[in-house]
Write a structure and sequence with these properties.
Layout: E1 47-48, E2 59-62, E3 67-74, E4 77-82, H1 93-99, E5 107-114, H2 124-130, E6 144-153, E7 156-157, H3 163-173, E8 181-183, H4 191-200, E9 205-209, E10 223-227, E11 230-241, E12 249-258, E13 261-268, H5 274-286, E14 303-305, E15 311-316, E16 318-319, E17 325-326, E18 329-334
Parallel strand pairs: 1-10, 6-8
Antiparallel strand pairs: 2-9, 3-4, 3-5, 5-6, 6-7, 9-10, 11-12, 11-14, 11-15, 12-13, 15-18, 16-17
């Protein structure tokens, strides 16, 4: 067997290595194509469905109950944007710091910020309180960001790529991450079985996604959501005074959109503790209105009407025959910057 030839040393004793003088780039030679990084991307949204899809191709993820966010990792730093495009980087400092350690030059991660309860379930009220309530200025040290999509990576716009490939890249990016930023795992199995199990464990529901779909803004049907318990956003249009209830608030009066008007959809008297009730009363008193902002034929006493400014997330079981919420429970107030869609009634 012959010996492998030895490589010549880079530096010889008598002749130093000299590089060739580079010629100017030929203007006719094409540049390496890189996609400009979007300043902001309108999010893809899940379409509400009464039951899981029958298509076995659809992948399943747990539905989180928090704030939809996009993390932009840029050469100049990190931005954390709300669904409405507002910069909340300062409100989630731990998430922003974690994003700096991902080892990429540029990226856009789509996901949701949550606070988990003792059972590991996302708790919207706890997230709100960690931020100081609606309009609060606290920095949440408890929030986690569960990333479920990757829209841009190191100069390449991935939105036209199929979801399965985007999630593969995202999983590789987040492998081993157990800090504030985590990968939203896919749940394997039959869609109906996954949904039933999530409801049995008291979870929000399940998101089903077409693995072959590109990333498209809005409710296109590529993503579907099936909820265990109904939860929607409504305007708070007043409250009923009470000398018995904690905080002096007997119930909150709610309204939904109907065309260009609002329609009264009932009230909610559970789900808020004394501290939250006091904050609600003080805020609504500042928004007090002499006239009800909706057509109201009720007989409630001691009602304080308010301008329809506050948006509340309400959990409920069903609708009554006369268009009112049944078994409603208050979960928390939505931020204006969250761009939450108020429930709309269609004829």
């Amino acid at each position: 067997m012959t010996d492998r030839p030895r490589s010549k040393p880079l530096l010889a004793d008598d002749k130093p290595v000299k590089g060739r003088i580079r010629k100017r780039r030929d203007p006719a030679q094409p540049n390496l194509l890189l996609d400009p990084m979007p300043h902001r991307v309108e999010p893809a949204l899940a379409l509400l469905q009464p039951k899981p899809p029958s298509d076995p191709r659809f992948i399943a993820e747990l539905k989180f109950d928090g704030y939809r966010l996009a993390i932009h990792v840029e050469p100049s730093g990190v931005r954390v944007l709300t669904r409405g495009g507002h910069d909340w980087t300062a409100r989630f400092p731990a998430i922003a710091e974690e994003a700096k350690t991902l080892g990429v030059a540029s990226a856009i991660l789509d996901g949701e910020a949550v606070v988990l309860d003792e059972q590991g379930r996302s708790d919207f009220g706890a997230l709100q309180q960690s931020l100081g309530g609606r309009g609060g200025k606290l920095k949440s040290s408890e929030a986690l960001f569960f990333a479920f999509d990757l829209l841009y990576l190191d100069g390449h716009d991935l939105r036209d790529m199929e979801l399965s490939s985007r999630r593969h890249l995202l999983e590789e990016l987040l492998v081993g991450q157990e800090g504030p930023i985590r990968f939203s795992e896919e749940i394997e199995g039959d869609g109906n079985a996954i949904f039933n199990a999530s409801c049995e464990h008291g979870l929000e529901g399940v998101i089903f996604k077409d693995p072959d779909s590109p990333y498209r803004t809005g409710r296109t049907g590529d993503w579907l959501k099936v909820k265990c318990i109904q939860s929607e956003s409504f305007f708070v249009i007043g409250y009923e005074r009470s000398s018995v209830a904690r905080g002096g608030v007997g119930s909150l009066l709610l309204a939904a959109r109907k065309g260009d008007d609002l329609q009264y959809v009932g009230s909610v008297g559970t789900g808020f503790k004394e501290k939250v009730a006091i904050q609600l009363r003080e805020t609504l008193d500042k928004l007090e209105s002499r006239k009800p902002p909706v057509s109201y034929g009720g007989r409630r006493k001691n009602v304080v009407w308010a301008q329809p400014t506050l948006i509340a997330e309400i959990e409920y079981r069903a609708w009554t025959d006369d268009g009112k919420l049944r078994h409603a429970s208050f979960k928390g107030l939505r931020e204006v910057q969250d761009n939450a869609a108020v429930y709309e009634i269609h004829d």
